[in-house]
Amino acid sequence: MAKPVRAPLKILMLQFKSLGDAVLMIPALRAIRDRHPDCALHVLVSEAAAPLLRHSPLITRLWSMPRVRGRARLSQTWPVIRALRRERFDLSADLGSNDRGALLSLLCGAKNRIGLVHSKGFLGRRLCYTRCIPPAPLDQHETLRLLHVLSAWDVKPPSAVEINLHTDPHLDALASQILPKATVICHMGAGRPNRQWPVGHWAALHKLAAAAGYGLVFSMGQAPRERVLLEELRQNSPDVHVLPPMPDVGVFLAVLKRARAIISGDTGPMHFAAALGVPTIALFGPSSPVQWGPVGEGHQVLLGGRCTCDHRAHRCHSASNCLSAISPERVMGCLQSILSPDQ
């Protein structure tokens, strides 16, 4: 008598942290696809992060919902949760393992739910999972730390960790209008103020690059704090070129793909650029480049000066931000090492 054919596994992956974290989960998705090539692989992220994964060939279905700090928006999230519950997932993995991800893991109702053990968060968060995984050491890259979560399912890391982002080809024409000529993008924004290179340094780099024949264009997030920095840059360098506000992350990806290189602090666009194969100069201060550096070949990391944070902290508490020790001349030299002015 023939054995009954088992249906392919239905797996849900959750990541409700920053945009950069959504990019860094891609090797974990690839590892699952390698281990279970026929599985139905669903991914749940915030609405803002959805364009980063919308065109990934690894994913069976992408789900998204609003993510606003301190606001649940039940009228918008509950219909998504109900639809996810109807999928009857066999497995779910919460790679972010924050409060929101833990609750969503429980509500989505997979039979087996894994997540990380953390000392922070609401009381009873570990009860949202059927199995809790201890975090991997901080001396590993975040991609490997996310892959460690999947060890509970006997999912092995790939032989080489790669991250590939896929942009929407329908946005190429719009991107060519926004950035008609391939140039170097300088992303000034960062999630935390102490991950921002000083505005005066950006202005000095702009002057050095113009003298050497390099075109620079600056980008920035939409937070009020970041817009203030942009106005300060314009006061220092009235002739500076700035990218217009982007309607969403998908458009920004299409624009970023056209860049000759990007210079950025430890922030999401740094990971976007590296995943698009754009040569990246990453400026690191309090955070660890070992854990958060750009993935791939052809990228360079510049470290700030010695500091009490020792490049291992989320925040620098020194009176002088260690990022300020990275001089504009040093960044310029790094840029010249990866590009030539006449390209």
Give me the secondary-structure category: alpha/beta
Q: What's the oligomerization state?
A: single chain
Examine the coordinates and then state which fold CATH places here, giving the name of the CATH topology of the largest domain.
Answer: Rossmann fold
Number of helices: 13
CATH class of the largest domain: Alpha Beta
N-to-C order of helices and strands: EHHEHEHEHEEHHEHEHHEHEHEH
Q: Tell the overall outline.
A: globular
Mean pLDDT: 88
How do the strands and helices of this protein lay out in sequence?
Layout: E1 10-15, H1 19-24, H2 26-35, E2 40-46, H3 50-53, E3 61-65, H4 74-86, E4 91-94, H5 99-108, E5 112-116, E6 131-133, H6 142-149, H7 172-178, E7 184-187, H8 199-212, E8 216-219, H9 224-236, H10 249-256, E9 261-265, H11 268-275, E10 280-284, H12 289-292, E11 300-303, H13 328-338
Parallel strand pairs: 1-2, 1-4, 2-3, 4-5, 5-6, 7-8, 7-9, 9-10, 10-11
Features:
6-stranded parallel β-sheet, 11 strands, alpha/beta, Rossmann fold, 2 domains, globular, single chain, 343 residues, 5-stranded parallel β-sheet
